[in-house]
Amino acid sequence: MQPLFIFEVNMNQFLSTIPPWIRNKYFIATAVFLIIVIFLDKNDLFTQIERKKELRKLEKTKEHYTKQIELERKELESLKNNPATIEKYAREKYLMKKDNEDLFLITEKPVSDKK
């Protein structure tokens, strides 16, 4: 029985060195709750930060594609209404030419940083 008593004395001395506000049951419950929410939960803090980054990236992509769709709609409307635009589109996109014309394609070489 003697060793148990020594353990109890040492434990009481240890507990008396801890400030009372840390031994408070509400503080302990709040600390455990915060640890679970911040680190251990499925929707922890780090996951939320990562999701917000992904959301911003997706919103930028959405904005880009919305602008691209608007440009394509304007081009389609122009192609429906203007024969000169149809000719210009055919020449640029499909490399079409008139019978009495010659077509020369000039391609640019990619710039390389090798020296």
Secondary-structure blueprint of this entry?
Blueprint: H1 2-17, H2 20-23, H3 25-40, H4 45-81, H5 83-94
Helix pairs in contact: 4-5
Task: Please give a structural write-up.
Helices cover 74% and strands 0% of the residues. It contains five helices and no strands. The protein has helices at 2-17, 20-23, 25-40, 45-81, 83-94. Helix 4 crosses helix 5. The longest helix is centred in the middle third of the chain and has 37 residues, at 45-81. It is rod-shaped. It starts with a helix and ends in a 21-residue tail after the last helix.
- The dominant shape is rod-shaped
Question: Overall mean pLDDT score?
Answer: 86
* Content of β-strand: under 5%
Give the biggest beta sheet: none
Tally of contiguous helical segments: 5
**Parts with pLDDT < 50 across at least 5 consecutive residues:** none
